[in-house]
Amino acid sequence: MNKPTYSIARASAAYAVFGGVSFDLKQGLTDNGITINLDEDFGERNKAIDGSSIWSEYETSAGTIVLEYLPSSPCVPFFITLHATQRGTGSTGSDTVTVIDRDMKFTYTGSQVAIQSITGHNVKKSKGDSIVVTLNCGQITSIGA
């Protein structure tokens, strides 16, 4: 499955806690930026015994949105604090995230979002340190203009 990756030059991204005020997610992204992964393909083609085929669509549209940050990014403490707050209050899975690709004219919206993981420092030989935040989305929808 193709996994779109966005640079900060041509995309914008925001995270809204409980559907409230959005937090800009572009601050301090690394070169890898944002990656959107659907859990499975849209469907599959099956062949019958007589040679005919049928397309079966899957109902799920869940997936993950992976954000890779520099350790100095203000987004890192935002997600660490948000994750601790959500675990303490039991309010995980009520947020939304939006990624807009202005060049390709696509908007991706993740709903029922929960923070799946925040890695520690990932020290790379050629590109420097990074911290990866993985957002688990109950549903990812995309709209093309």
Q: Strand-residue fraction?
A: over 45%
Distance between the termini: 22 Å
Run of helices and strands = EEEEEEEHEEEE
Enumerate how many helices there are, as a single number: 1
Q: Measured on Cα atoms, how large is the radius of gyration?
A: 17 Å
Shape: globular
Structural class of the helices, strands and pairings? Answer: mainly beta
Q: Level of helix content?
A: 10-25%
> What characterizes the major β-sheet?
9 strands, antiparallel
Give the integer mean of the pLDDT values: 82
Strand tally, please?
A: 11
Report the uncertain regions.
Answer: none
Report on the structure:
The protein is mainly beta. The chain is 10% helix and 54% strand. The chain has one helix at 75-89; strands spanning 5-6, 11-16, 22-24, 29-38, 43-47, 53-57, 63-69, 95-101, 106-118, 122-124, 128-144. The strands form two sheets. Strands 1, 2, 3, 4, 7, 8, 9, 10 and 11 form a nine-stranded antiparallel β-sheet that branches. The radius of gyration is 17 Å and the shape is globular. The mean pLDDT is 82.
